[in-house]
Amino acid sequence: MGLRKPPLHAVHDGRASFTEFGGWEMPVEFDSIRTEHAAVRETAGIFDVSHMGEIEVSGPDAMTLMDRLVTSDVTNLDPGDTQYACITDEAGIILDDTMVFRLPDDDGARYLFVPNAGHDARMYDRWVDHRDEWGLDAAVENTTREWAMLAVQGPDAPDLAAAASDGATREVNRFEAGVLEVAGVRAFAARTGYTGEDGFEFLCPWDDAETVWSAFDCRACGLGARNTLRLEMGFLLSGQDFDSEAEPRTPYEAGVGWAVDLGREFVGWDALEGIDREGVAERFRGVRLLERGVPRNGYEVVDADGTHVGHLTSGTMSPTLGEPIGMGYLAAEAAPPGTCVRVVVRGEPKRANVVTPPFIDT
Amino acid sequence: MSFDVPTDRRYLESHEWTTTDGDTVRVGITDFAQDELGDVVFVELPDVGKDVAKETEFGVVESIKAVSDLISPLSGTVVGVNEDLFDAPELVNEDPYGEGWMLEVEPSGAEEFDDLLIADEYRDQTG
Fold it and tell me: pTM to 2 decimals?
């Protein structure tokens, strides 16, 4: 099976190195992760994140269908509102996490949600199957191939977005979205992101991606910097920090219990209601290494006696802090912030402090 | 993209270089290798006095995105390591053939250099 390519692949070719991610061939690095990371923290950077999926849900029962398949209550979203949610199975295991947008241009509730790379087909099937099973009147469309997604992030991003949209983005507050024109292209503009910085994620028609991309005079950034930026914020990476096969976790274990609303019923409610009462055995935490080394996905965590207390699912050298940071699942006794644990790096236990992410203030 | 491949040294297919003159030689990684890795953030090197063996692992280099074993182009005894890299691993990116050197080795046999790649052969490999 060939890799899916983003609409700007030809534009990036020769300027970036590429990597496979979720079945897509995506730019991982343009200049260097360090310079791209710094641009987003200090000024602004632009990312091609067209590998993210888009599923649209409309019709008389759109709200009911949406609300029964995600962990957070989407019924009180106003047009133009956005909300983070997990999609869980019957056992409460996270299948994916997503941003849910209630589209601003509706008559009746219409939603768009953004599954992670490579999950769009599976989520589409899930929505259609449940709609049919529940006999709901809703249309579900997988529009992943119709939308390009470009993220402009950083302290300067709001000004850049305003300049490119004739001031239209000024009307969009944090965690809200609007339909407006960017560089003359009709786009869906959400003031959201995955970096911890202010900025926008633009959905525009696939064929207009280059027009929108070219309207932003800021540093092109790849998935490498996107990963270090999200790691410093403690944001989960689907398929790594949780994965229904390789790292099955509930939202409570993964530190996103705040995105679970048990006041209404949804798939996974029964299991999660029990787990909420009984508590979890392992918790998602950050670690800061006190010795030289780089924490990585899969490294074991032990206590002072060498007893296993958990493992890491993400890690890097933080470009902002210049310090090694990691995240993963720790047993309850090792989870309190300030606990000193050891991360085993190629057989060597390296001392580390347990922290609650984010690692930096933005 | 074209990478710097100095002709005054020999190369391994796994992207390490070694100088060939004098009682001790230096070992490091190539310009191509540092570019592939991206921002180098950590280097793990053997202690002085340790022996290294040709085409076996002598350490580890890590960039923000990747971990890579370092392979020795020759056998010998480590007589020096570049301790500057512990505080400034970015020297590997900035000057891979100079300030970014990794090991100083006293070779156990000079004939070992003969089967290493010369600059042109290494350049052909990296295309």
Answer: 0.94
Q: What whole-number distance in Å separates Cα of residue A137 and Cα of residue A87? A: 21
- Assign residue A181 a region: left if phi > 0, alpha if psi is -120 to 50, beta otherwise? beta
Residues A158 and A221 in one domain: yes
For residues B116-127, average pLDDT: 91
Q: Cα(B82)–Cα(A261) distance, rounded to whole angstroms?
A: 55
- Indicate if A79 and A14 belong to the same structural domain: no
Are A292 and B41 a contacting pair at CB < 8 A?
A: no
Per-position DSSP letters for B24-62, written without gaps between them: SEEEEE-HHHHHHH-SEEEEE-PPTT-EE-TTSEEEEEE
**Domain C-terminal end among A86, A111, A142:** A142
Domain extent, residue A351, equals 281-355
pLDDT by 10-residue block (mean), chain A, 362 residues: 88 93 95 96 98 97 98 95 97 98 84 97 98 98 97 98 98 95 97 98 97 98 98 98 98 98 98 97 98 97 97 98 97 97 97 98 87
**What does the pLDDT read at residue A1?**
54
CA distances from A141 to A116, A154, B95 (A): 16, 32, 52
Segment B101-115 shows an average pLDDT of: 88
A63 Ramachandran zone, left/alpha/beta (phi>0; psi -120 to 50): alpha
Q: What is the ipTM of this complex?
A: 0.87
In a domain, A247, yes or no: no
User: Which H helix or E strand runs over A286?
Assistant: strand A282-289
Element (H, E) at A140: strand A139-142
CATH of the domain at A227: 3.30.1360.120
Q: Residue A97 domain-assigned?
A: yes
Residue ranges per structural domain of chain B: 10-107
Residue A238 lies in a domain: no
Nearest CB partner across the interface for A32, out of B38, B62, B67:
B38
CATH of domain B10-107: 2.40.50.100
Check CB contact of B65 with chain A, cutoff 8 Å: yes
Domain holding A110: CATH number? 3.30.70.1400
Q: Which of A120, A142, A164 is the last residue of a domain?
A: A142
Residues of A in Cβ contact (< 8 Å) with B42? 292-294, 317, 324
Look over chain B and give the mean of its residue pLDDT values, rounded to a whole number. 94
Q: Is residue A203 part of a domain?
A: yes
Per residue in A108-157, pLDDT (tens digit) is: 889 999 999 999 999 999 999 999 999 999 999 999 999 999 999 999 99
- Taking residue A357's Cβ as centre, other Cβ atoms within 10 Å add up to 18
Give residue B8's pLDDT band: very low, low, confident or very high (50, 70, 90). very high
Mutate to test the interface with B, among A13, A19, A28, A34 (most CBs of B within 10 A): A34
